[in-house]
Write a structure and sequence with these properties.
By secondary structure, this protein is an alpha/beta fold. Strands 11-13-15-17-19-21-23-25-27-29-31-33-35 form a 13-stranded parallel beta sheet, with no helix packed on it. 40% of the residues are buried.
């Protein structure tokens, strides 16, 4: 057990990734990292193995160790080694010594596994290349060689028990065995021991040469990229750059790959920031001039100035096309855009699909904002969302559920109560709302009109509680004005010849009654009110005439009785 000097409670530490696997100038990158780390003034530096190139005999191994330690000893703080396969595996003529370079590592770096405390935190370094417990073979690609020995596991559990009262415990090893695959499933008992300890915060590893984050059960599992250039990378053109990672190729002038794995830059001044995966087909590609892929996996920017920010299996093949993320999206039109989602296609010039899935914008300036299985195929057409909508006409609009704007300038909105609703003609406006339509003209929804469900007529909102300034009317006066109101048949100037309407003009109506907002419109509520008032006036007139008729009939009956009496007296 190693003890560090006690200092103030607050502290931080730095973790270096693998040093090996890259070009010879990776050592200079390590030196840069040491200088930068000194500026940060951490309490100490941890490593995750592969400190030397290794895979050699003792002589070259000792030279590489001296070079590595010479650089690391320039740190202004303590640093702690972890053993990796490059540090342990022996290669050379003759038989491999038992343990390969294990004895060399213990002699020149220290124990293969160890622990220490610092400011109420625990730090544990594990050894992940013990090899096959039966044969001693060391091979990180075979599950049977990736088993923690009973000795080391027992030591780990005992150390975790000693650290139980600490605030945080951090573990460091070389191989990220928790990812499975060729590592097998031997990590599970280790994970359970970490869970039982209840204070393990994070586990750091290296080896795979790119960042990987696998949180599980409250423990942060982190695999680090390299410090020193990665492995199997190629910068094969003038001013080309590969920052790190594995199996990346920058094969065009000015091409740049920041890191990741199996990425390709083939276009001049193109860029892949990182990402990729374990296999060639998971790598990202920027194959045309100034094309860019930020990250993700299996993305391809194949046209000039095309850009993919991330995601998976996306293709930007239109010049200056952009894909923000998501998966299996295509931006094929010039300056087209797919924001994200899945299986979306923007193939028209300046076409846009913001998100959703299985949406298509195939005409110039066409837009699908989201939803599923929508299509905007008319120039300047729009589908804001919903399901199964089609805007096929120029500058058409389709929204809701299976709306079909098949004509230029058509607007169609359909609810989900039935199947497709198709536009009636060019520049038409159609809405299907089987639950009714409400249109309000006041913020508190106090005034407006309603088209009730199943109805064919508008109902004006006419609630007494939302009316004011009541004043009586003279129905007879209204009737007199209706009687003199000019009435004609006519047609609107925009209508076809032969169509006829009957009624007053708004100017004559306004002059006669002074109702409404202006003299160019007649509100139906005013026309209805005038008609009702005129009917009342006519009723009063009819009543007066009926009363006079009754009195005249009574007078006639009285006179008839007098005549009958006179006639009788003469006989």
């Amino acid at each position: 057990m190693l003890d560090l000097p006690k200092e103030d409670d607050a502290f931080f530490f730095v973790v270096f990734g693998d040093r090996t696997g890259g070009p010879a100038d990776g050592v200079s990158v390590l030196a840069d990292a040491v200088r930068d780390t000194n500026l940060l003034q951490p309490d100490f530096v941890m490593t995750v193995g592969d400190l030397v190139e290794g895979y050699n005999e003792q002589g070259p191994w000792l030279e590489q160790t001296a070079e590595f330690k010479g650089i690391m000893n320039q740190l202004l703080c303590p640093w702690f080694p972890v053993a990796g396969n490059h540090d342990i595996y022996w290669r050379g003529p003759g038989d491999r010594p038992p343990g390969e370079h294990e004895q060399d590592f213990e002699t020149h770096f220290g124990p293969l596994w160890y622990a220490f405390r610092h400011k109420n935190c625990g730090f544990i370094a594990l050894y992940s290349d013990e090899g096959n417990p039966l044969t001693g073979e060391k091979n990180f690609s075979k599950p049977e060689c990736n088993v923690m020995s009973d000795e080391q596991l027992g030591w780990l559990k005992a150390t975790l028990a000693e650290f139980r009262e600490l605030d945080h415990v951090f573990l460091f090893l070389h191989h990220p065995r928790w990812i499975g695959g060729s590592y097998g499933d031997s990590w599970e008992p280790v994970h359970q021991a970490l869970l039982e300890a209840a204070n393990v915060t994070a586990v750091f590893a290296g080896h795979i040469h790119f960042m990987r984050y696998d949180p599980r059960d409250g423990i942060e599992y982190v695999a680090l990229a390299t410090v020193g250039g990665g492995q199997f990378n190629q910068a094969a053109a003038a001013a080309a750059t590969v920052g790190g990672g594995s199996s990346n190729q920058a094969r065009s002038a000015g091409g740049t790959i920041g890191g990741g794995a199996f990425n390709r830059v083939l276009g001049p001044y193109a860029t892949v920031g990182g990402g990729g995966g374990f296999f060639t087909e998971q790598g990202n590609r920027a194959t045309s001039d100034w094309s860019t892929v930020g990250g993700g996996r299996a993305n391809a920017a194949t046209a000039t100035e095309a850009t993919i920010a991330g995601g998976a299996d996306n293709t930007a093949r239109g010049p200056a096309a952009t894909i923000g993320g998501g998966s299996s999206n295509q931006a094929a039109g010039t300056r087209s855009t797919v924001g994200g989602g899945q299986d979306n296609t923007a193939s028209g010039t300046a076409a846009t699909v913001a998100g959703g899935q299985r949406n298509t914008a195939s005409a110039t300036a066409a837009t699908v904002s989201g939803g599923e299985a929508n299509r905007a195929s008319g120039i300047g057409s729009s589908v804001p969302g919903g399901t199964g909508n089609q805007a096929r006409g120029r500058h058409s609009f389709a929204a809701g559920f299976h709306a079909r704007a098949a004509h230029d300038g058509a607007f169609v909105w359909a609810d989900d109560a039935a199947d497709s609703l198709v536009s009636a003609g060019p520049r038409s406006f159609q809405v299907r709302a089987s639950g009714g339509i409400w249109l309000y003209t006041a913020p508190d929804a106090a005034t407006g009109v309603v088209l009730p469900a199943g109805s064919g007529a508008w109902s004006t909102l006419s609630d007494r509680h939302h009316k004011t300034d009541f004043a009586p009317v003279d129905p007879r006066s209204i009737l007199d004005r209706v009687a003199t109101l000019p009435l004609q048949t006519w047609r609107y100037t925009t209508e076809a010849d032969g169509l006829r309407h009957l009624g007053p003009t708004a100017q004559d109506f306004h002059a006669a009654f002074g109702l409404g907002a202006d003299e160019r419109h007649i509100a139906t509520v005013d026309a209805d009110g005038v008609a009702l008032a005129a009917i009342q006036g006519l009723w009063h007139l009819v009543q007066a005439q009926a009363e006079r008729l009754d009195s005249l009939e009574a007078l006639v009956r009285a006179q008839q009785r007098q005549l009958d009496a006179l006639e009788a007296s003469r006989r």
